[in-house]
């Protein structure tokens, strides 16, 4: 459905009704799956231990946010028309163009909520509108406990909306550590005595609940709500994340000059350390600051991981887009205290751009500290031109991460599928590389979704048809006649 022909929502309640219909489909699928799994377990279980070691899993949401079972049963139909989630997004955009404020999309845009967080808010809101959802949640809350509540549990939401272990860990960590829902105290986790954290119930803060169900929500009312919640004192939490990098240089698919420059920067930092160790001489400035510019998915983060791995040190990373400006001083203090050897600042334009909300004196002090430590600071931005000339003197070098060439895309496609995943011979790598001008990040995401899709329909191998179905879901088309001719010729 083209955007200009999409029907906008007449008001906030019409939007909520459409979203709850989507949640209904997911819940009905989960219930059907749980009933089937319970029946199968009961049929073969010989003891309580057999039942305890069986579980139903999880991730009933498909590639584009709609219920997976219907999509996987009829992939050709799914490819022929937009998914329910895509249609919702089109109607939301049409509403925004007509000036209709929808409460949850406005909140999501303002706080940059993930799709998981948005679904979590909907799940927490649903029983406040209809007690039918409370009954469904009780059925799906499989833990054996005396808890009787109308609310969803953390475990239930993770099981419903996370498709694999990586998404489960990412969603859980974000929710418990740096989610805007926690930062503004918009969501409560209600733990039960002697129960695990996963069994905690999720409850929306009352002022947020009232805003979400407003007849005519406004952006001004949303700002007032957030300002009110922001004034409530909270315990400080660090936005600085530490990961152990396992990426090696050979894993990078980048232009040779760029790869050489990255490796040289590592050697230069290692040289500073060796100079002090061998000849007892300490250079005046030991730190290196690099500006990494390029679109999302062009390899900036994976390059930072390779650098950290080469230096045998953890990678410290923070996305400045997820940090409220009032928390900048605390973040700077955390960086100063921990003094990471490799630091990656995503969305660095928020500090270095012309409209930066960070005090220039604080930024000067940050650069001064990093330059006088044996450390490598990586500033990631989409375009280098967003950095004013005033700050360029603090940057040792600007490295541009281009979109991958056709040759690079061919390697990226072949490497995107792990060796343990069986691949059919009909996949036309060359055509994929030639026709699709994608980034490495986009290729990796498509490959992961294709693997999940093939596994969901219990295919023995990942084939070209699986790839085409996933590409169709993303609105990407290939010349299928040519592909079919090639496939027939090879047969």
Automatic annotation (TrEMBL):
Positions of the Winged helix domain: 7-219
InterPro entries: AAA_ATPase_domain, ATPase_AAA_core, P-loop_NTPase, WHD
Keyword Nucleotide-binding: yes
Sorted UniProt keywords: ATP-binding, Nucleotide-binding
A Pfam family per the record: WHD
Residue ranges occupied by any ATPase AAA-type core domain in the UniProt entry: 290-355
Keyword ATP-binding among UniProt keywords: yes
Domain of life, per lineage: Bacteria
GO molecular function, one term: ATP binding
Name of the protein: ATP-binding protein
Organism per entry: Drouetiella hepatica Uher 2000/2452
